[in-house]
TrEMBL record:
<dbReference type="InterPro" id="IPR027477">
    <property type="entry name" value="Succ_DH/fumarate_Rdtase_cat_sf"/>
</dbReference>
<dbReference type="InterPro" id="IPR037099">
    <property type="entry name" value="Fum_R/Succ_DH_flav-like_C_sf"/>
</dbReference>
<feature type="domain" description="FAD-dependent oxidoreductase 2 FAD-binding">
    <location>
        <begin position="36"/>
        <end position="470"/>
    </location>
</feature>
<keyword id="KW-1003">Cell membrane</keyword>
<dbReference type="GO" id="GO:0009055">
    <property type="term" value="F:electron transfer activity"/>
</dbReference>
<keyword id="KW-0472">Membrane</keyword>
<dbReference type="GO" id="GO:0009061">
    <property type="term" value="P:anaerobic respiration"/>
</dbReference>
<keyword id="KW-0285">Flavoprotein</keyword>
<dbReference type="InterPro" id="IPR015939">
    <property type="entry name" value="Fum_Rdtase/Succ_DH_flav-like_C"/>
</dbReference>
<dbReference type="InterPro" id="IPR003953">
    <property type="entry name" value="FAD-dep_OxRdtase_2_FAD-bd"/>
</dbReference>
<feature type="domain" description="Fumarate reductase/succinate dehydrogenase flavoprotein-like C-terminal">
    <location>
        <begin position="532"/>
        <end position="665"/>
    </location>
</feature>
<dbReference type="InterPro" id="IPR030664">
    <property type="entry name" value="SdhA/FrdA/AprA"/>
</dbReference>
<keyword id="KW-0249">Electron transport</keyword>
<dbReference type="Pfam" id="PF02910">
    <property type="entry name" value="Succ_DH_flav_C"/>
</dbReference>
<dbReference type="GO" id="GO:0005886">
    <property type="term" value="C:plasma membrane"/>
</dbReference>
<feature type="active site" description="Proton acceptor">
    <location>
        <position position="338"/>
    </location>
</feature>
<dbReference type="GO" id="GO:0008177">
    <property type="term" value="F:succinate dehydrogenase (quinone) activity"/>
</dbReference>
Length: 666
């Protein structure tokens, strides 16, 4: 029987958040200065939360493992951030953003949370503009918008292909203001290795100073995890190399339920793998699908000739190209959701139509957009629209203004000019929809322990729509958590400082030191990367874009064996009381080796296809995902020792404001 309480407020959907804010308990300014909050992670979620909580008067301790808060992985987000402002006058609204998000997530997200996200989305843009975020603007000075996959409106605000960087710098500047005031104490190069639970409440963390190796105790009245997602479980991904699951996984082992671990996103527009030497993959923003057309050759012999270098893609005539997304999904075309676009690319490549040497790539072609924009500009300027050299020159200038840094990045990596020849792309692991289970207030199943941004599961269901990650991170940090955490902390105004001399801190620190000692003294023969790569191959081959019962069961056993081998045979050079990146990496991989088994277990028990979770046994005649109504719930796993022993709890998903039907983008 489920023990989950989502704490969704009563009342009409559109009024839940407003009424909830109006009735929850508050902490007075005089009392806020006596309350400490730890925030782990300084990306868009953690950074915005730290800045806002400190602005309100709380004492904040912010932790990141990077050398600076501005190096959080949020900086890598390229394409934009959604908000239902309807600047384009194309019919957007709060309800439509809510509807698109629930539908895009294949009806596997919590209705109340998603509607709140849509409501506060408009506030985010105003906040960021006030901070000086340089969003793109139209000729008249208004903020510009572009479209992303899974929607029929333009609601994505952007700053070229650097949106994440610009938004993070806004949050970072807000943090710095509070650091200067002394309201935020910043701990860079620190990694959280455990949560400390006192009398059933989260009261602090154990952290390791990554420069000195020192183990530190930090106490607080509440702990907030904004530590990002776990996609590096697959080894090759678009995540930063340091991104990991450790903070969330340690919280899971202390009682926080882990929700929907098998819901990970495969992004369709990444630079393809070039060989075994690679340690990460590079994303090409989904915004490119606004103007780029995706295709493969219609004929197998043409695909083979392109792979062998005997035929250039620009020399293949239009009638011999298969614009397969436009063919299959005429209503949305190249802007279908990420899960749909990714599976379609895999299907074409598996059928033999891939266009790079490995056969795992499709084309993203801007030639038509360059000509279209060029002719428009020539017309506006009164120039010859039939002068193709002029048209292409003008068109390239427009494309460069919109996507220039992305084109530059592609050329540096692939050594091909995407203005002259189509980009090559292929799906890659990009985002984790799963994460720590949280209620409506963003609290985990451990009182006083919160999870925000990608670290929680709450808003995206089985598939995240493009440009919604930045929206959720900033919504949680700027506009949701600062309200809801006060309701909890109102009971702590007389608690006083939390001592780090409590026996619970002793026990947690001892556990951390024992684990580190075990790793550093193991004296095995294989590197940490050896095990990470092996885990990644198991995950990609058997828990990746397509899954089936047989291979998921095999993955569970193979990961268990690999985990046992890791603890017997991993070798870590250096010492524990010094800067030792290999030791830090070993701890993260150890956690991945546990999460991987739970991931496969979750995917095995979810006998349906939905969003990014595609079970080969459950698909339509046309190869589309086939949902099953009996799986309309959130899977929340309770830690009980080994991952295979985790206890499964279910939160039913009830839709009162949206009709659940087969998702179609045709």
């Amino acid at each position: 029987m489920s023990i989950l309480d989502s704490k969704i407020p009563e009342g009409p959907l559109a009024e839940k958040w407003t009424n909830h804010k109006s009735h929850i308990n508050l902490v007075s300014p005089a009392n806020k200065r006596n309350i400490d909050i730890i925030v782990v992670g300084t990306g868009l979620a953690g950074g915005s939360a730290s800045a806002t909580l400190a602005e309100l008067g709380y004492n904040v301790k912010a932790f990141c493992f990077q050398d600076s808060a501005r190096r959080a992985h949020s900086i890598a987000a390229q394409g934009g951030i959604n908000a239902a402002k309807n600047y384009q006058g194309d019919g957007d609204s709060t309800y439509r953003l809510f509807y698109d998000t629930v539908k895009g997530g294949d009806y596997r997200s919590r209705e109340a949370n998603v509607h709140r996200l849509a409501e506060v989305s408009t506030n985010i843009i105003d906040q960021c503009v006030a901070q000086g975020v340089p969003f793109a603007r139209e000729y008249g000075g208004l903020l510009d918008n572009r479209s992303f996959g899974g929607v029929l409106v333009s609601r994505t605000f952007y700053a070229k292909g650097q949106t994440g960087q610009q938004l993070l710098l806004g949050a970072y500047s807000a943090m710095n203001r509070q650091i200067g005031r002394g309201k935020i104490k910043m701990y860079a190069r620190h990694e959280m290795l455990d949560v400390v639970i006192v009398d059933g409440k989260a009261r602090g963390i154990i952290a390791r100073n990554l420069v000195t190796g020192e183990i530190e105790r930090h106490s607080a009245h509440a702990v907030v995890l904004g530590s990002g997602g776990y996609g590096n479980l697959f080894y090759l991904s678009t995540y930063a190399m340091g991104s990991n699951v450790t903070a969330a996984w340690k919280a899971h082992k202390r009682g926080a339920f882990f929700a929907n671990p098998c819901f990970t996103q495969i992004h369709p527009t990444c630079i393809p793998v070039s060989g075994d030497h690679q340690s990460k993959l590079t994303l090409m923003s989904e915004s490119l699908r606004n103007d780029g057309r995706i295709w493969v050759p219609k004929n197998m012999e043409d695909a083979k000739a392109i792979r062998e270098g005997k035929l250039k893609p620009v020399d293949l005539p239009e009638e011999k190209r298969d614009y397969y997304l436009e063919r299959r999904y005429p209503a949305f075309g190249n802007l279908v959701p990420r899960d749909v676009a990714s599976r379609a690319a895999k299907e074409r490549c598996d059928a033999g139509y891939g266009v790079n040497k490995t056969g795992e790539a499709v084309f993203l072609d801007f030639s038509a957009a360059i000509v279209r924009y060029g002719k428009e500009q020539a017309h506006v300027k009164g120039l010859d629209e039939n002068d193709m050299a002029l048209v292409k020159k003008l068109g390239k200038e427009i494309v460069a203004n919109k996507y220039g840094n992305l084109f530059q990045m592609y050329e540096k990596i692939v050594d091909q000019n995407p203005y002259e020849t189509p980009m090559m792309i292929y799906p890659a692991v990009h985002y984790a929809m799963g994460g720590l289970w949280v209620d409506y207030n963003l609290m985990t199943t451990v009182p006083g322990l919160y999870a925000i941004g990608e670290a929680n599961f709450s808003d995206h269901g089985a598939n995240r729509l493009g440009a919604s990650a930045l929206m959720q991170g900033l919504a949680d940090g700027y506009f949701v958590l600062p309200y809801t955490i006060g309701d909890y902390l109102s009971d702590d105004i007389r608690t006083g400082k939390i001592s780090t001399d409590l026996p619970e801190f002793d026990a947690a620190e001892k556990q951390v030191k024992d684990d580190i000692s075990k790793l550093i003294n193991n004296k095995g023969s294989k590197s940490v990367d050896y095990f990470h790569k092996k885990l990644g191959k198991i995950m990609w081959n058997k828990c990746g874009m397509a899954r089936n019962r047989k291979e998921l069961a095999e993955a569970i056993e193979e990961i268990k064996v690999l985990r046992e081998e890791f603890w017997k045979d991993v070798f870590i050079p250096g010492a524990e009381n010094e800067y030792n990146e290999e030791l830090a990496k070993a701890g993260r991989v150890a956690d991945f080796l546990e999460l991987g088994e739970l991931f496969a277990k979750d995917a095995l028990e979810r006998e349906e296809s939905c969003g990014g979770h595609f079970r080969e046994e459950h698909q339509t005649e046309n190869g589309e995902a086939l949902r099953r109504p009996e799986f309309q719930y959130v899977s929340a796993w309770e830690y009980k020792g080994q991952p295979r022993e985790a206890v499964h709890h279910k939160e039913p998903l009830v839709y009162e404001n949206i009709e659940v039907k087969e998702r179609s983008y045709k």
